[in-house]
Write a structure and sequence with these properties.
By secondary structure, the chain is α/β, with parallel strands linked by helices. The protein is built from 15 helices and twelve strands. Helix content is 39%, strand content 11%. The structure holds flavin mononucleotide.
């Protein structure tokens, strides 16, 4: 049985659901492997090293073969019919570039920039995602080390499977970590937690607001269903919980804008900027700005919450087209379905300050641990630099909205309103 984290954000040891990486396995007595386990072991033996992964997608393909059923189902799962999960990728594919030629210094490919006042080697961040230990025994610490080595920001999930101290100890001196908060039904616990992460040195608080109810993460629920034989044997036992449901009992779903004010009140004692994650409409970007937050992440939780909520790239396009002045009021980031450097460059050109990756970091951690996460970040860095060179841009700050828009000829109603 899985239990939620305690008030200070530490998960109990049952979360270490099993070492997957044979390199890090302590010596154990030989156990008979099931057929599925044997297949996974064979796949792991045939898996290429991280440096031979060419696309970020390669990590997902291998993760499906080598991760435990529980880990794969939890990571990959999305809500209901998974329409939003699919749309996150499909929508990105509907935006194309308008490359310019013969631009000065366009071979430079400079990816360094800042967001929320934090310098980053490339405008990619690790989105907060729970339970990295399901994929690798070292869990989120691998993400911390990889992010530190590559010079990018990691957002730590409220439901991380490593202790907060472990991650802050694993970080480099100059490395920035951001803490993601779910409001606890017990507000005093949230208050203590915010004070704790500030003391540890977090650079901002991400307040996730798109989990307004426990959604049905279809694959995760199915993976935990008992077989008919198990069900008959345990007729009187409580139904097994999906991973998502098992870890979220403490979360308060009954939130309003006044709870944002509560966090801002706490902020009086703290200097930490607040980023609201899970914004899904232009109107709510405006409201976040009105409520004095410093950043928003356009996100639908990777398609894990409201099915049929829009793709973040489309909301970003709407903000750029209808309310461009909002980019000066609040820093806008996005995540959801970002899998290539071109995806990232499209969002950056439309005005995102940085883009987040959720599953890619978890998958790469599950297949290759820290090395895998570093390779994912390097692939993004290489692809972002090469995309910029090929559309005639030397540095991130020179990306402009008119370099990207809906696929097809920009005539009639298809012409983006921001194109001069
Ligand atoms: C397995 C998993 C766990 C997640 N846990 C959290 C979480 O604890 N807090 C949070 O704000 N978002 C969480 N998310 C959402 C991610 O932060 C992010 O929004 C999403 O994964 C982005 O989509 P992508 O996976 O397509 O990159 C989780 C996502 C996944 C896949």
């Amino acid at each position: 049985m899985l239990h939620p984290p305690d008030a200070l954000g530490t998960l109990p040891t049952e979360y270490c659901l099993g070492p997957v990486d044979p390199e890090t396995l302590p010596a154990q007595e030989e156990e008979e492997l099931s057929e599925a386990e044997q297949l996974r072991q064979q796949a792991r033996e045939n898996m290429p090293p991280a440096e031979n992964m060419v696309m970020v997608q390669d990590f997902e393909d291998w993760a499906q073969k080598v991760l435990s059923e529980t880990a794969w189902a939890y990571y990959r799962s999305a809500a209901d019919e998974e329409m939003t999960f699919t749309e996150n990728r499909d929508a990105l594919r509907r935006y194309f570039f308008r490359p310019r030629i013969l631009q000065k210094n366009s071979t430079e490919g400079i990816t360094e920039t800042t967001f929320m006042g934090i310098p980053t080697s490339v405008p990619i961040f690790i989105s907060p995602a729970a339970m990295a230990k399901l994929g690798h025994p070292l869990g989120e610490v691998n993400l911390t080390k990889a992010a530190g080595e590559c010079g990018i920001v990691q957002m730590i999930s409220a439901n991380a499977s490593c202790g907060l101290e472990e991650m802050f100890e694993a970080k480099r001196e100059d490395q920035s970590l951001i803490y993601q908060l779910y409001l606890n039904k017990d507000r005093a616990a949230s208050e203590t937690l915010i004070q704790k992460v500030e003391k540890l040195g977090a650079k901002a608080i991400v307040f996730t607001v798109d989990v307004m109810w426990q959604s049905k993460r279809t694959m995760d629920v199915r993976a935990k269903l008992p077989s008919p034989a198990e069900a008959a044997a345990a007729a009187a036992a409580p139904a097994p919980a999906s991973v998502s449901h098992a870890i979220s009992g403490y979360q308060d779903y009954n939130l309003t804008w006044s709870d944002l004010a509560f966090i801002r009140l706490l902020k009086k004692n703290t200097k930490l900027p607040i980023i609201v994650k899970g914004v899904q409409s232009v109107e709510d970007v405006q409201l976040c700005a009105d409520h004095g937050v410093q950043g928003v992440i356009l996100s639908n939780h990777g398609g894990r919450q409201a099915d049929y909520s829009p793709a973040p790239i489309d909301i970003l396009y709407e903000v750029r087209s209808l309310r461009p002045e909002l980019f000066d009021k609040v820093e806008i980031m996005i995540d959801g379905g970002i899998r290539t450097g071109a995806d990232a460059v499209k969002a950056l050109a439309l005005g995102a300050k940085a883009v987040g990756i959720g599953r890619p970091a978890l998958y790469a951690n599950g297949t290759h641990g820290e090395e895998g996460v570093k390779r994912v970040i390097n692939i993004f860095q290489e692809e972002i630099a090469s995309t910029m060179r090929n559309i005639g841009v030397s540095k991130i700050q020179d990306l402009k909205p008119e370099m990207v828009g809906p696929a097809g000829p920009w005539v009639g109603r298809n012409r983006p309103p921001y194109v001069p």
